[in-house]
Amino acid sequence: MKLILLGTGGYHPNNVRHTACVMLPEIGLIFDAGTSFFRVPERLQTDEVQILLSHAHLDHICGLTFFLPTLIRGDVKAATIYSDDKTLNAVRDHLFSDEVFPILPDYQFETIPETLEIGEGGRLTHFVQQHPGGSLGFRVDWPDRSLAYLTDTHCDQSAVEFVSGVDVLIHECNFSDGHEEFAKKTGHSTPTPVAQMAQEAGVGRLILTHLDPTLDGDDPLGLSAIREFFPHTEVATDLMEIEF
């Protein structure tokens, strides 16, 4: 199965990264809808999509407005947005308010159930994370593979059991090491605790995403140092594709 990281930055886009969106095109599954959501239509392989929103901060939902032409043309027959009620209400009442974006695309809004069927044989679960205003982390288990997506969260022990043994863990890493105090204050993560958690949880592969858009250079997080704690770590880039 192919996984595409359409957007790997946090807060705002920059010259190399758009904000959060992860897509599994073969089954029409999408996590978050940041500024990179404009890349979804040309990669779709289904006429139905399931969109999982971690929370309602603007860098994770603004791309929902970009999908209007796709829905009007009928390229997608059904687009369902799942999240908690607080997030769904924020999207409907604020992002699609008459003053901001007066045309509500033909989305179906559904409160996320305890478990959700994904594709053939997939089972999605979620848990509540530490972040100002709250956020959800997601995990999908198929008979032969598994994936977890955790963004906008301060990494702590509460996630170890949830992600235990997943083949691929996509985890936010907004700040580099040395900014732990600010990361905790803003509900974000730094590399070393994430790598240590991945090691403890026995995940197969760690992909770091949601990078601070003000970080400079080709190696903004110091990958070699992170791999000392968890060797199977990669830093995501926009349009990165993963087979798992």
Give a quick set of tags describing it.
seven-stranded mixed sheet; Metallo-beta-lactamase, Chain A; globular; 28% strand; alpha/beta; 7 helices
Topology:
Elements: E1 2-7, E2 21-24, E3 29-31, E4 48-52, H1 58-61, H2 68-73, E5 78-83, H3 85-95, E6 107-111, E7 116-118, E8 122-129, E9 135-141, E10 146-150, H4 160-163, E11 168-172, H5 180-186, H6 191-201, E12 205-209, H7 223-227, E13 233-235, E14 240-243
Parallel strand pairs: 3-4, 4-5, 5-6, 10-11, 11-12, 12-13
Antiparallel strand pairs: 1-2, 1-14, 2-3, 7-8, 8-9, 9-10
Quick structural overview:
Helices cover 20% and strands 28% of the residues. It has 244 residues and is of the alpha/beta class. The model has no long low-confidence stretch (mean pLDDT 96).
Q: Could you give the distance between the termini?
A: 6 Å
| Total domain count | 1
Strand-residue proportion = 25-35%
Shape: globular
Multimerization state: single chain
| CATH homologous superfamily grouping | Ribonuclease Z/Hydroxyacylglutathione hydrolase-like
**Strand/helix succession:** EEEEHHEHEEEEEHEHHEHEE
Q: Roughly how much helix do the residues carry, as a percent range? A: 10-25%
